[in-house]
Amino acid sequence: MFASLPLTALRAFESASRLLSFKAAAEELSVTPTAVSHQIRSLENWLGVPLFERLPRQVRLTDGGERLFRSLHGALLEVAQSVDTLRPQRSGASLTISTTAAFAALWLVPRLGRFYARHPNINLRLDTHCEVIDLHQDASVDLVVRYSLGDYPNLYGLCLFDESFGVYGSPGQVALAAERAPTLISVRWHNSKLYAHGWAAWCAQSGESWLTGQPAVREYDEEHYALQAAIAGQGLVLASNILVSESVANGLLVAYRGEVQVDGAGYSALCVPGRERHPPVRAFFAWLREEALLSGHGLA
Fold first, then answer.
1. What pTM was estimated for this model as a whole?
2. CA–CA gap between residue 229 and residue 227 (Å, rounded)
3. Which residue, 19, 52, 103, 142, could crosslink 24 as a Cys pair with Cβ 3.0–4.6 Å?
């Protein structure tokens, strides 16, 4: 049934497609770039269709190449995971999670002690770079937690919770806000589509006139800096109900007019289809589901 499949060429194709480089694929496979090029050319001849567009100093997948890569990558990943389950268990397994610095600092890390207590042999690494990772291209990342308004039809996913934004401050600042207009703390959003004109939307819904005249506004590049400013009593912050949950639970921040909330986006945990069956990934998904339910905000 599989005797005619050119397995060596398919392996070279998967590597070159994932890395988008014949040279990088050659390094990964410990062969020469010429050998990789020859294997891919022979695969194209065998199929009768081009798989790559050869451009100056780069290659790009054709539509046919993209379809083949998605199915082949998932199949090889499943084979690799099946082989791993047959090997003697090592002392520890590794798991790489990509998410935003704010979600890691304000929601994930404070809860990770419970994950480590349950799975002491899983070594977890957090990647909090801002770049959005293509999981089909970067096999070094097992799972991502993303904040978005969109869907991900090509990935296996778990919707954790939907987000809303409210106003929070230290107990002293919240008490003062009833008497005079407070200093407003906000974040310079990297993606304005996710949350544009937040304070204006909240004030319009609440009827507060804080934005009239020349309001005092302090902006920070990251949510965790804005929350720390609010905890320190520097003003009221417009913040995610998800990211502020630990500070509220600890009494560091309280809601100001908590009934007034502005809709945000949603958080989802995602991986390449098939990888959710890998034991460390499966364990992390199960733990995330429990924590989302415990938080009182999910599952969405």
1. 0.67
2. 5
3. 19
